[in-house]
Amino acid sequence: MNERKTSVFSNGLLWFGAGISIAEILTGMLLAPLGFAKAFAAIILGHLIGGVVMYLAGLIGGRTGGSAMETVRISFGTQGAKLFAGLNVIQLVGWTAVMVASAALAANTIAAIGVSWWSLIIGAFIAVWIVMGLKNLSKINVVVMAALFILTIVLSLVVFKGGAPQVPAGDLTFGGAVELAVAMPLSWLPIISDYTRTAEKPGLATAASCSAYFIASSWMFLIGMGAALFTGQDDIAAIMVQAGLGVAGILVVLLSTVTTTFLDAFSAGVSCQSLVPKVSDKILALIATVLGVLLAIFAAPDQFQDFLYLIGSVFAPMTAILLSDFFILKQDHTADSVNWLNLVLWVLGVALYRFLLNVDTPVGITVPVVVILMAVSALVHKVLNKA
């Protein structure tokens, strides 16, 4: 990609848009059984934890100038990184489908023209964003983000307009709520370097990106949690309809989905380029968009969402090893074809992650996995290097 360089401000806008999405609102609704105070604390703590890891991952791309999957070569070698590139393409196409399908369903609640038609419309807008490219988007994003900011304030006023909160029944623990909040920023780990690599000022741009995402995503969680507590509903589109937010509701759904899902589709193209380097990342991103829209129309999202979470769980251990190599050990295995030691450590990390799924800690399970694996990786490499 030759679109260099992006400003700190444009990076911040890009990730503010990523944080404003229906997915964040729906996830925030799940935290309502904790009550307002505990849910609010879990949202902030989870986003702080996830945001720190997200910042470190993005900083690697900013400093090296490599895409997310190119930076993975530092730990796993040139051929080893292709495994993660392939898994990343699969999950990003899948998440494109999930986001498009969820938004189309919400939009159709507000204006019933058919879910399939809404899927096609949303897909077309995502394609326009991809064709425009990151540099050109920095101008239009100012207008789009201003509109989203105003619309989100309106939506917030609708949700928090008053009334006594009604805490729904549920068995969600505080640690489980933190894990849900952590999961959102961590879901961007295999993506963020695709955008920080083009920054004029990598450190500041990465900080701006993560800060903007922290604010927007936390805000969306609060809207979702507030909607469940103060309206008693679990359908944000229905709340918009009842509040008379017809056109405004459509704009919230459409713009928030496009600005978030664009990143999924574009990064699918960037990751796929690691596998087929002769094809333009934009062309590959457009193909990913088409596949995502087709999946959204012809497959029920709940049929493959659990599979996507399973794939997504591989990236926290992957990032832990990468952070250890880059920041602690300061070693680079790019010259290797496959670094088998790190691949074995990654498999153990995935196993640890799956094992801890039923364990409740105050900070969720992702953070313990990342910290433990970073420490083990650093220790093992230091011991073997001395041997």
From TrEMBL:
Membrane topology: Multi-pass membrane protein
InterPro entries, sorted: CodB, Pur-cyt_permease, Thia_CytX
Top-level taxon: Bacteria
Gene Ontology molecular function: any one: cytosine transmembrane transporter activity
Transmembrane segments: 12-34, 40-62, 83-104, 110-130, 142-160, 172-192, 204-230, 236-263, 283-301, 307-328, 340-357, 363-384
Alphabetical keyword list: Membrane, Transmembrane, Transmembrane helix
GO cellular component: plasma membrane
Record's subcellular location: Membrane
Chief location bin: membrane
Coiled coil: none
NCBIfam families: thia_cytX
Protein family membership: Belongs to the purine-cytosine permease (2.A.39) family.
Protein name listed in UniProt: Hydroxymethylpyrimidine transporter CytX
Organism of origin: Megasphaera elsdenii DSM 20460
